Amino acid sequence: MTSPLKVAILGAHGRMGSEAVAAVNNAVDMELVAALGSKDSIESILEAGATHVVDLTVPAVSEQNVRFAVSHGLHAVVGTTGWDDTKRASLTELLTEHPETGVLIAPNFALGSVLATAFAAKASQYFESVELIELHHPNKVDAPSGTAVRTAELIARSRAAAGVGPSPDATESSLDGARGADVDGIRVHAVRLRGLVAHQEVLMGGEGEQLTIRHDSYDRASFMPGVLLGLRTVASKPGLTYGLDGYLDLGL
Question: Name one GO biological process term (predicted).
Fold first, then answer.
C-alpha cells in the first residue's frame, strides 16, 4: 500500500486554509502533518516530516515560503496571488538546483473555472470582441484577480496565434478606470460586492451574436478538488507549472 502524502498547510487559519485542512484530513491518501498560522515557524514543517506544502498565505510571505520548501526538496502547491513574471523566473532558476522537485502555482483551483478559461481562450479566436468581468467579495486584496489576469493572457495569446486583431473600441474620452484594466490588450473589469465569493464572465461578441462563458464559485469548497489534484500530481511534474490547466488533459 502506498504511503499517504505528508502535507503541511501554510495559512491554515484563513478561509481557504481552513477548507484545505478539512479537505486533506478527509483524503484517505493524505496525512496532515502541520497546519501553520502566520506566527508559526516554517521550520516546523521539516520537523513534522512534510513532503508536500500548500501555500495559502499572503503575497508578502508566499515567495519566501515556497523558496524554503524547494530548497529543502519539498513539493509545493501554491494558491497565493502576486507571483509575477519576475518571481516565477527566479523560482524556476532555483528549481534547476532541485530537479526532482515540483511546484504548482494556480491562480484558481476550481476545476470549472480552469475549464471555463480554456474554453474561452479557444472560443475567443472566433469573435471580433472580447472583454472580461470578474466579481469577488470585498475582502479581496488584488484587482483584477489572478484568475482574470491569467484568462486575459491566455485569450490574448490564443487570438494572436489565430491572427485576430484587437477588439474594436471607438472610445475617445472616459473617466479613469471606466474601460477597466488592459491586460495584454484585453479589457478586464473588477467588481467587489458583499455576498460574492468568486465569479467570472468572458463576454465575446460578433455580428448579431454574443457568447458568454461564466463560472461561479459559491463556496470555497469548490477549490478543494483542484488543491487535492495538485497535491497528487505535483511530484510527477518536476519544475514549475503555472496554472492548473497544466495538469489537465484539455485537448484544445
Answer: diaminopimelate biosynthetic process
